[in-house]
Write a structure and sequence with these properties.
Copine, VWFA domain-containing protein, 2 domains, Rossmann fold, seven-stranded mixed beta sheet, Copine_C, three-stranded antiparallel beta sheet
Length: 324
């Protein structure tokens, strides 16, 4: 066991460590007894009067089995994958080869590469393989600026058939919209969260398990940061994870603030997130690697986020259906 003094910036200070066995902990805590383990810092051991850096008191030992992500999948949990795409003006004119939305017939742009890499993994867990694809920050053909629209322009049925369908809808959409702004992402987070909230109600009513993953692709600084924080805090209590992929060369330092790895994210009103549901990755870090490596990195935290959600709700995985 390694013991650290926690720092919110991630630079935790090592206090000391001790080694024991499960058998030892069990025997020492039998009958309500307390086990004590001195924490030793090797760098301080050479000092004459050094005894320890503190003592860990183990007052109770419980052993329990934690279900795995795959147990929920085998038990019939439905993964629902949604894509949210940034159509703001900072991406550049799509007709210009320097634009992040430029459609090169020989080379997919960064948006397409990220959708393909992450989507190809997620679709293996989605039984119907119908994916809602949403856009934000564009001026639509009717002249309205929208922060939440179906990229197939069918709001009553925003679903695309497979990742190939998402990419086709994206390429068609680019030809019909005018890139605009601002970069407001909260509406799309709330959009998916509403479906996750409905799924949460059905957990109790029907015993159905459904989990939502939103892949949000953006090229720049979020302009509705306070509302986005509130949306994430709201979604943290729902069966939902948010993956943000930063496209292009912008300063994405604010995005790391949304990723709760360095401390609990709080809403604008100070309300803390129930759990960490955000993973941010700048696409530029993976330009020279394979799509599989990008997918592995951005999806690394999702399995534990799924398990943590159901643990908080005290919902076990369903038994694996018997094959006949």
């Amino acid at each position: 066991f390694d013991c650290y003094d926690y720092d919110s910036d991630g630079s935790h200070d090592f206090i000391g460590a001790f080694t024991t066995t499960l058998e030892d902990m069990e025997s020492k805590t039998q009958g309500g007894k307390e086990a004590q383990y001195p924490c030793i810092n090797p760098k301080k051991q050479s000092k004459k009067k050094y005894q320890n850096s503190g003592v860990i008191h183990l007052t109770e030992l419980k052993i329990f089995q934690r279900p795995s992500f795959l147990e929920f999948v085998y038990g019939g949990m439905q993964i629902n994958f949604t894509v949210g795409i940034d159509f703001t003006g900072s991406n550049g004119n799509p007709a210009n080869p320097t634009s992040l939305h430029y459609i090169n017939p020989y080379q997919p742009n960064e948006y397409m590469q990220a959708i393909q890499a992450v989507g190809n993994v997620c679709q293996d867990y989605d039984t119907d393989k119908l994916f809602p694809a949403l856009g934000f920050g564009a001026k639509l053909p009717d002249g309205q600026v929208s922060m939440e629209f179906a990229i197939n322009f069918n709001p009553s049925n925003p679903y695309c058939a497979g990742i190939a369908g998402v990419l086709e809808a994206y390429k068609a959409c680019i030809q019909r919209v005018t890139l605009y702004g601002p970069t407001n992402v909260a509406p799309i987070i709330y959009h998916v969260a509403r479906f996750a909230e409905q799924a949460q109600k059905e957990e109790a009513e029907k015993g159905a398990h459904a989990y939502f993953i939103l892949l949000l692709l953006t090229d720049g600084i979020i302009t509705d940061m306070d509302r986005t924080r509130d949306a994430i805090v709201y979604a943290s209590g729902l069966p939902m994870s948010l993956i943000i992929v930063g496209v292009g060369e912008a300063d994405f330092s604010d995005m790391n603030f949304l990723d709760g790895d360095n401390g609990t994210l709080k809403g604008a009103n100070g309300r803390p997130a129930l759990r960490d549901i955000v993973q941010f990755v700048p696409f530029r870090d993976f330009k020279k690697t394979t799509g599989a490596e990008l997918a592995r990195h951005v999806l690394a935290e999702v399995p534990q986020q799924v398990v943590q959600y159901y643990e908080i709700r005290k919902i076990p995985p369903k038994p694996r259906p018997t094959q006949t």
